[in-house]
Amino acid sequence: MKTLVIEKPGLAVWKEGPIPKPAAGEVLVRVLGVTTCPHWDLHILGGQPMFPGMKLEYPYRPGAPGHEAMGEVVALGKGVKKLKVGRRVVAWQDTGQPRPGFYAQYNAFPEASLLEIPASLTPAQIASLELAMCVEVSFQQLAGLGGITGRRVGIAGLGPAGLVAVQLAKAHGAGEVVGIDLVAARRTLARKLGAVCTVAPNATAWPADRHGAKTLDDAIDCTGLPPSISFLMDRTQRCVTIFGVLREEVGFGLRHLWGPGLLLMGYGNHNRAAAETALRFVVEGKLDLAPLVSCTLPFTRYAEGVERLRKKSAIKVLFDPWLE
Known about the structure:
Layout: E1 2-8, E2 11-16, E3 26-35, H1 38-45, E4 68-76, E5 88-91, E6 106-110, E7 114-116, H2 123-126, H3 129-143, E8 152-156, H4 160-171, E9 176-180, H5 184-192, E10 197-199, E11 216-221, H6 226-233, E12 236-242, E13 263-265, H7 272-283, E14 293-297, H8 302-310, E15 316-319
Parallel strand pairs: 8-9, 8-11, 9-10, 11-12, 12-13, 14-15
Antiparallel strand pairs: 1-2, 3-4, 3-6, 3-15, 4-5, 5-7
Helix pairs in contact: 1-8, 3-4, 3-7
């Protein structure tokens, strides 16, 4: 089989490798499509750690950092209980273990980290389910406060996660979804996916006010950037929950303490229930992942795909392991 190997920063090679054998509790997946996770791809190909303190070694693990994938089960390891050969599956979580990734034609993966999916779903419609699971965790956090039914919810950062969050907010009953992003094209797409209105994060056009007509009830930040989080904190009444990877500290001031006090909430834990909820929304037509895919490329053009992400000319790239 062939697999992608990032041999050093800036150099990714599509090369021959052995077809893995599924260990106990694993199945062998014939990979049919993998979508980029922009931050992972940009950081690893760029020679930067994804998280502060993360150690990078090259050549990077074969097939990594690909983790948003779907495919067909072609072999079973010992002890597999539910999945059968021929069933379509999607990865719902990155195991977090140092193992080969899905940027390959085949990958052995734990049964517990896969969900069976309808055979009618295309790679573009379902490969990004792992991202949807991650975003759904933020809605689980808000559910602990009573949920968002009928509430005005802001989503900052309309990249892949933000565009999923717009749809999940609507699916969870938000009364109004407000999308916030600097890029006009992404604001336009957010409106098509369910945002009632979209705005640029402009403090002049939208002055700070936690009690006015434009105030958000709750908000999710999908950027991880302190200026974006602070913008939301100054315009949200109940809770700002952080989804984006936070690399710097965020200030909480006296203006956030009263009337009522603002809750700044961190992230929860990845879990299967969140994945199953996201999959249910896909099947019900309430969550459409296909619009996130800007183009489909073969892995021989991996560097080109990542460059499109860097230039923001693509939201996500779908890689087909079988395209020449």
